[in-house]
Every structure is written in structure tokens, then in C-alpha cells.
Automatic annotation (TrEMBL):
This is Dihydrodipicolinate synthase family protein. The lineage of its organism: Bacteria, Pseudomonadati, Bacteroidota, Flavobacteriia, Flavobacteriales. InterPro entries: Aldolase_TIM (IPR013785), DapA-like (IPR002220). PANTHER family: 4-HYDROXY-2-OXOGLUTARATE ALDOLASE, MITOCHONDRIAL, DIHYDRODIPICOLINATE SYNTHASE. Belongs to the DapA family. The keyword Calcium does not apply. Transmembrane segments: none annotated. Pfam families: DHDPS. GO terms for molecular function: 4-hydroxy-tetrahydrodipicolinate synthase activity. It comes from the Bacteria. The active site is at 140 (proton donor/acceptor), 168 (schiff-base intermediate with substrate). It comes from Flavobacterium sufflavum.
Amino acid sequence: MNNSKKGFIPVMLTPFNNDGSIDYKTLTALTELYLKSGVTGLFANCLSSEMFELSEAERLQLTKHVVDVVAGQVPVVATGTFEGTIQQQADFTNKIYGTGIDAVILISGLLAKETDSDAVFVDNVHQLLNLTPGVPTGFYECPVPYKRVLSAEQLGEFVDTGRVIYHKDTSLDINQIKAKLSVVKNPDFGLYDAYMVHAIESLKAGSAGLSCIQGNFFPELIVWICDNYNDASKAEELAAVQQFLESNMGVMHDVYPIVAKYALQKRGLSISNFTRREVGDFTPIVKNAVDQLQNEYDILQNELSF
């Protein structure tokens, strides 16, 4: 999943009705909002989607709904590995690929136990790839159930199979990202960085794009970064954007994804605050912080003129 243009692949939220069922009408509107903002792909059925709180049937139905709404406008990826043996994870990988997505994302922390060696992890990955012939895949260093960060050597080995075309990096380490990029030679592969603190440096180093929760607040801002990261004439504006994102990282992570859903409400999206995941209380203090965040963003948006 790579092209000459740097891109933004948002980690999609799941809208719920207040009774806890998936709100597919709002999911359609949310998908269209992402597309209108200029994203170059979508990551459905991910941690931001509350994937661990969805049933297997819901994971498939939700992903198929996104694929149908997108209708080929941009690539769609979705998680395929959850609990169970490698065979069971491979079975669901094959199932979710059948929804029409472009690649199935493998959660590194579910392909080996935290106490397992790197050798066990690598062997399990190859076993899963052998059980899913013809399925394009990618990796996500998801923090749940624990974060297993791939080494440059591991990623290079997996990409060399020709089966791995995507990597969502959460190492939070620009040197690790540069090391990974230095060993990957497949032009079809793309590394997408989740850490906004070094987003611009990562793009300049060769990352294919960004995939971050901040895009669930201001997707057009992340698209703007990808479009302008290397424009010397916009250095001052880029520095201001970087500072805005760094300064407000705590606000956007607090009781997430509730705060992101509330921020989207302020944009006019009819989305409930309901979440299945226990993330804490959406207190008046948290609400006021998001209100202030929106005010600061409005000022920044006017300065950037987009």
C-alpha cells in the first residue's frame, strides 16, 4: 500500500446506537467524512473501532459495510488476527479478506505470547502466511494485549515474502522507523507512522504516510501534513501544526475514543458518545478540554487557510 503521494490512513471509529448496537447509518456518514477529507486509505476493525468488544460477525459486517461505502475509492485494510491458535487466526484472516478489503492486518501482540521469543513470533508469522495463501497482509504494533514492536530485520524478512504490504508503526522511535525503512525494498510496501510527535520527520525519512488517532478529530489536518510536509515555504505553518498536535496529545488520548466521538459531534456528525470499551468518565473537565481544543483548531485552520 504505497504510492508516490504521502497519505493518511485513519484508524476508524465504530459508531454505536445508545443501546449498544452498531449504528450503520452513522458509519456510512463517518466513512464519507473521512473520504471527503482526502484520506488515501481506511483502517477498519482496528483498536479505535473497539474491535475487541465486537463479535466475529460484527467485525465482518462492519468491515464489509465500509468496503461497500468506499466502493473502491481508496484501499481498505482491517484486522484479521484475534484470540486463538494460529490456525484459528488464519481462518478469520481468510474470512475477513473475503469482505473485499485490500489487506488483512496482523496484530503483532497476538501472534506470540509476551513471554515468547522472537524466534517463536517469526515462526508463527510464517505459519500464518502459509495458511492464508494469496492474502495481502500488514502488521500493526497494537498496544493491546501487549505491544510487540517488530525489529527492522523481522520486518524486512516478512516484506521479502511478497505478502506484507503495510505496517502501522507504534515504536515511537524515529531511529527504529529509519532502520525499518532502510531494509525494506518492496515498492508495494508502505510504513505508516502512528506517532505525531515526529510525523514530519518520519515522512521526510520515507514513511508512506500517517495513521494516528488525531485524524479522528481533524482528518483534514493530517491530510494537510502529508501534502505539505516537504514544502520549505510552509515550514512555519508546519512547525505550528506540530506544536498544536504535541501540546494537545493528552487531551486527545484522555477517555478516547469518547473524546473523538464528541469532537465529531461538534463537526455536525450525528454520532453517540456510546462506547463498549471501559475508558473512563467523560466528565465536564474532559468536555471543556475538547471544547478548548476545537477553539484552538479553528484558529489554526484559519491561519492555514484550508
